[in-house]
Amino acid sequence: MAGEVVERVKSIAIPLFVELGLELVDVEFRREAGGWILRLYLDKCGGVTLGDCQRVSEELSDLLDVENVIDHPYTLEVSSPGLNRPLSRESDFLRFTGQRARISTSQVIEGRRRFLGVLRGYEDGRVSLEREDGTVVCIPYALIAKARLDPTLKKE
């Protein structure tokens, strides 16, 4: 159920985001202690403002009500992905080249499944990451289970 809701929300939200000059980073729909939460993360060059979040929240709420996407009570949250922004698209690895990231893989690569270092780019289906020791590992995009910027490390 949650997966279907996320896909329907994306199909409604993406055109709105494009119109507003925003990027949809991620959508979550899950039950938490206070009930069901629909959480959208947005981004744009120069950063997201509180006004951006408020406008998206108001416009998206109306669209979701009209489309009757969710048939039970839920809370809509719209926010920036924050400093530890998830990296989910191939273009993210290019956009954030030069920044530090943590990457987990679904399979062992060079004896490891967790990597930490500076993104060096994306080419031919592989993400280049320079580790703390200066070595560069090329990680197949298809094997990335989770990736995010790492705010605990200094940016170059």
UniProtKB/TrEMBL annotation:
Pfam families: DUF150_C, RimP_N. It is found in: Cytoplasm. InterPro entries: Ribosome_maturation_RimP, RimP_C, RimP_C_sf, RimP_N, RimP_N_sf. One of its GO terms (biological process) is translation. Its main location: cytoplasm. One of its GO terms (cellular component) is cytosol. Required for maturation of 30S ribosomal subunits. Belongs to the RimP family. PANTHER family: RIBOSOME MATURATION FACTOR RIMP. This is Ribosome maturation factor RimP.
